[in-house]
């Protein structure tokens, strides 16, 4: 599947790397040309502007925002002039849920789908995967399933419990 990623900080860049390793095509944009160039070396499709970024994506477009919470609304507003009905915007940050509800309503009136995906995993996510809390229209989320599956931790990737700590059901020593 193809995904556009805006915001190539530590998490955004590593999410792109994990997606590329998983066989997805990623189109990338960031204010830092250096961040874009680094991922182009790793088989991402780079973009120097939002207009070029959107042009590089196949319709209906799926765009993941990994920008600071304070930049989400401005980024969406700057993107809107290039988007069409049926496109999907994903906010991968940890926005306040009231803002997500507002954004979803505003974008729905324009025919654009909004998916809220609170994402955690930090710099270890590239190797271990990302935990995601996904909210959005069921059919849109289903359309994005292969992206979520690639980003998620693999089966059996759990945190082990220290054998020195008693666990529920263990006999007291």
Describe the model.
The protein is an alpha/beta fold and 173 residues long. The protein contains 8 helices and 7 strands, in the order E-H-E-H-E-H-E-H-E-H-E-H-E-H-H. It has a 7-stranded mixed beta sheet with strand order 3-2-1-4-5-6-7, sandwiched between helices. The longest helix has 12 residues, at 10-21. It starts with a strand and ends in a 22-residue tail after the last helix.
Percentage of residues in DSSP E strands:
15-25%
The biggest sheet, with number of strands, parallel, antiparallel or mixed sense and barrel status, is: 7 strands, mixed
Number of helices: 8
Average pLDDT works out at 90
- Determine Rg (CA atoms, Å): 18 Å
Give the overall silhouette: globular
Record the strand order, biggest sheet.
Answer: 3-2-1-4-5-6-7
Distance between the first and last residues' Cα: 53 Å
> What low-confidence regions span 5 or more consecutive residues with pLDDT below 50?
158-173
Q: How much helix, percentage-wise, in residues?
A: 25-40%
Keywords, please?
single chain; 173 residues; alpha/beta; 37% helix
Summarize this entry quickly.
With 173 residues, the protein is an alpha/beta fold.
What's the helix and strand layout?
Blueprint: E1 2-6, H1 10-21, E2 25-29, H2 33-40, E3 45-46, H3 50-55, E4 62-65, H4 72-80, E5 88-91, H5 97-108, E6 113-120, H6 125-128, E7 131-135, H7 138-143, H8 145-151
Parallel strand pairs: 1-2, 1-4, 2-3, 4-5, 5-6
Antiparallel strand pairs: 6-7
């Amino acid at each position: 599947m193809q995904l556009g990623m805006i915001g190539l900080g530590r998490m955004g860049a590593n999410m792109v790397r994990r997606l590329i390793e998983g066989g997805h095509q990623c189109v990338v944009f960031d204010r830092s040309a250096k961040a874009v160039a680094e991922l182009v070396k790793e088989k991402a499709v780079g973009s120097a502007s939002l207009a070029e970024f959107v042009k590089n994506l196949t319709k209906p477009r799926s765009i993941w925002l990994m920008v600071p919470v304070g930049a989400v609304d401005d980024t969406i507003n700057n993107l809107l002039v290039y988007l069409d009905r049926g496109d999907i915007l994903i906010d991968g940050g940890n926005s306040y849920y009231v803002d997500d509800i507002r954004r979803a309503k505003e974008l729905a009136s324009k025919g654009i789908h909004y998916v809220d995906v609170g994402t955690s995993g930090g710099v270890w996510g590239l190797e271990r995967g990302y935990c995601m809390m996904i909210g959005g229209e069921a059919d849109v989320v289903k359309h994005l399933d292969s992206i979520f599956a690639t980003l998620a931790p693999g089966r059996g990737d759990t945190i082990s419990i220290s054998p020195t700590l008693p666990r529920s059901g263990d006999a007291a020593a």
